[in-house]
Amino acid sequence: MNSMKCLMGSRKKINLFLLSLGIIFLLSNCKINAFEIARSLDELGRPRMFVHFIDIPGGEAIYIEFPDAGEMLIYGGEYDDVETVKERLNDLFEKKEGYFTSKLKGFLGWQQKINTVILRYPREETVKGVVEIIGKAEVENLYGPLEQKGSISPPYAGVPSSLVEFFLYFNPPYTPGWTTEMRKKQVTTNYKEVKRGRRIKTPEQIESDVEIEVFNPYTPVRYYEYIRRCDAPEWVEDRAVVVRVRFNEVSFLFIGNIEKNMGSKFATAGSSLKSDIVEISSPCLEYPSVLDNIKPEVIVFPKSRKKVKDIYSDKLGYKARIYSFYRKSRLIFITDGKKVYLE
Question: Is there a contact between 269 and 285 (Cβ–Cβ < 8 Å)?
Fold first, then answer.
């Protein structure tokens, strides 16, 4: 009888222990996958990370100021969008540095510094746009899906002009017309190919808990693929650079445009893509299963908010906050790694 009581008592203890473990697991998951929307900046601690969604036609320019130091631009726009992005960044620098300091730097020919630029799509117009950006700003690191070198040589027969510009930027021939500054830029701008599973290193001076992880493309784009297929929208967008930026407990997933092939991959990989805030563009509307699996608390979209709500109201299996930066100069999220404030 005593042994039976002991056995029943031990079972109760085991059940209570397992129940406790389950509660702890659920609470820990809630803490990781949820964050608070702050009502004012005063609710946020320090350091802080700023994420700027800049309004250009494709909604493909995201500028991130890291918590302690350094900055990153994710660019997937057209060549003609570069000037708009430059204007928005000039406004930002003017606000941060002051009007007279900013104007003096411009007068003296000082260039904007962007620690890291991500070439988002292997698309001709985007490649040309990124070449323009790194030609007009002080860029330390450039990441993208394109290989840097290949069998590109004069007379460049059949090679798109954007790829020639890209190749020559990093592998310039000896030309008497090149200035010392132009040569120096080729040396100081480091280009690295990205593929799924790679971690992008934030600037060395950053001490805060920031992690940047690549989820797409699965393999870098070789130059001969680019020559043949850079005009095919589905091929381009299936090889878009998709990254997640996590600062402490808050994570941003930047998806952009996805087509059918990539949509099916992402729909089955929802658990690994878990993020609090997801940035998407229009083709994602056709694949709500992607968002159903990721279950972000916030969806950021470059089109009108009403249009997104109307489309998602029937398709999305859960309720999410939807923010649009349609017809705004920019939409800014500020986070201390625990709470998020929308400016």
Answer: no
Same domain, 149 and 285: yes
Same-domain pairing of 286 and 204 = yes
User: Which of 67, 22, 51, 45 is CA-nearest to residue 276?
Assistant: 51
DSSP-based three-state secondary structure for 123:
coil
* Residue 159 to residue 168: CA distance in whole angstroms: 12
pTM for this predicted structure: 0.82
330: phi then psi, degrees, rounded to nearest 5 = -170, 160
Spatial distance between the Cα atoms of 226 and 217, rounded to a whole number of angstroms: 14
Q: For residues 21 and 1, give the distance between their C-alpha atoms in angstroms, rounded to a whole number.
A: 30
Number of separate domains in the chain: 2
- The total of other beta-carbon atoms located within 10 Å of residue 73's CB is 24
> What are the beta bridge partners of residue 335?
49, 340
pLDDT surpasses 60 at 90: yes
Q: What DSSP state is assigned to residue 211?
A: E
Contact 124, 159 (CB under 8 A): no
Distance CA 325, CA 300 (A): 8
Candidates 83, 97, 180, 181; CA nearest to 132 is: 83
Confirm if 61 and 325 have CB atoms less than 8 A apart.
Answer: no
18 pLDDT more than 50: no
pLDDT in tens, 263-298: 677 766 656 888 999 988 765 555 667 777 788 888
Residues 316, 335 within the same domain = yes
Bridge-based pairing of strands 71-75 and 137-144 is: unpaired
For residues 219 and 327, membership in a common domain is answered with yes
Q: Residue 197 in contact with residue 137, Cβ under 8 Å? A: no
Alpha-carbon span 71 to 179, nearest angstrom = 27
Predicted confidence (pLDDT) per residue in 219-257, tens digit:
888 888 888 888 888 888 888 899 999 999 999 999 888
**Is the same domain home to 221 and 241?**
yes
SS3 120: coil
The verdict on 29 and 54 lying in the same domain is: no
Domain that holds residue 20: 1-33
Q: What residues pair up with 72 in beta bridges, in sequence order?
A: 64, 116
What proportion of the chain, given as a percentage, has pLDDT over 90?
19
